[in-house]
Amino acid sequence: MKALVSAEIEAYATAHSMGESEICRTLRAETHQQMDCPQMLVGPLEGALLKLLTQIVRAAHVLEIGMFTGYSALCFAEALPKEGTVTTCEIDETSAAVARRYFAMSPHGQKITVRMGPALETMRAINAHYDVIFIDADKQNYLNYYRRSKELLSPNGVIVIDNVLWDGEVLVEPPPDERTAAIQELNRAVASDPDVSAAVLTIRDGVLLIGRKV
Ligand SMILES: C[S@@+](CC[C@H](N)C(=O)[O-])C[C@H]1O[C@@H](n2cnc3c(N)ncnc32)[C@H](O)[C@@H]1O
Questions:
Q1: Starting from the edge strand earliest in sequence, which strands make up the sheet with 207-212, in order?
Q2: Predicted pLDDT of residue 119
Q3: pTM of the model
Q4: Which residues have CB under 8 Å from 107's CB, separation 6+?
Q5: Alpha helices in 66-177 (DSSP H)
Q6: Which of 20, 31, 99, 105 is placed for a possible disulfide with 24 were both Cys, Cβ 3.0 to 4.6 Å?
Q7: Measured in angstroms, how far is the CA atom of residue 207 from the centroid of ligand 1?
Q8: 35 lines ligand 1 (CB under 6 A)
């Protein structure tokens, strides 16, 4: 992944943000040692942002689309009150096995429910509202995930979408591939959606924050 800011600025920002838990640090190290594409995990700086957002909106229920080895799910769980819940969607059993092992070790792991299978099907089957919805799975479905998330979002909730600057590829016209095109389409749809207010943050690979228009 291309860095949007220098390594020094990234390190400084991380050092001056909420630190990651010991268990998240260990999970991150194992993911880097043993998994393909370990850079998919949000890491400590974006993790701090997710935890802070969870606290600011006083979230009780979080929905995550794309769990991987469970790093961001654990960040959410750590930021939630005791009775809080994280529902997280994943399609890959190998990643889920790692995640489950770490959830079992964490004092916050019992807040997390893993829903295996295509996330869009899971989202369509859900009949509940969520205070934070984090979209971080297959890019071709981003617009579908966004549309369903609007229906599942609680009145004061926030939708967070990862990788919306896509290594800077969003600037390339025409888009070089389907995933870039899907992210461009999502960004245009959100920016022109009269129902919501949005801000793109240049953290990591670009993080889109979306709330209902007040
Ligand atoms: C970028 S990773 C998620 C990283 C995770 N949020 C973190 O920060 O630790 C995306 C994950 O979405 C999963 N995924 C891809 N397509 C999916 C689908 N259609 N339904 C559910 N999960 C999917 C992948 O297997 C992968 O583990």
A1: 112-116, 85-90, 61-65, 130-135, 153-162, 207-212, 196-201
A2: 98
A3: 0.98
A4: none
A5: 71-79, 93-105, 119-125, 142-152
A6: 20
A7: 16
A8: no
Q: Is the CB of 72 under 6 A from ligand 1?
A: yes
Percent of the chain with pLDDT over 90: 98
* CB 94 less than 6 A from any atom of ligand 1: no
pLDDT exceeds cutoff 80 at 43: yes
Is the beta carbon of 66 within 6 A of some atom in ligand 1?
yes
| pLDDT at position 2 | 80
Q: What is the dihedral of CA 60, 48, 52, 171, to 10 degrees?
A: -100
Task: Check pLDDT > 80 for residue 1.
Answer: no
* 96: Cα separation from own chain's centroid: 16
CA angle 98, 158, 145 (to 5 degrees): 65
Cα–Cα distance measured from residue 188 to residue 27, given in angstroms and rounded to the nearest whole number: 35
Instruction: Take atom 25 of ligand 1 and give the residue whose Cα is closest.
Output: 92
Condensed to tens digits (0 to 9), the pLDDT of residues 77-107 reads 999 999 999 999 999 999 999 999 999 999 9
pLDDT at 42: 97
Residue 24 token pair: 């998240």
Average pLDDT over residues 66-83: 98
Could you tell me which residue, 169 or 4, shows the higher pLDDT? 169
By most ligand atoms within 8 Å of CB, the mutation choice from 40, 42, 145, 204 for ligand 1 is 40
SS3 203: coil
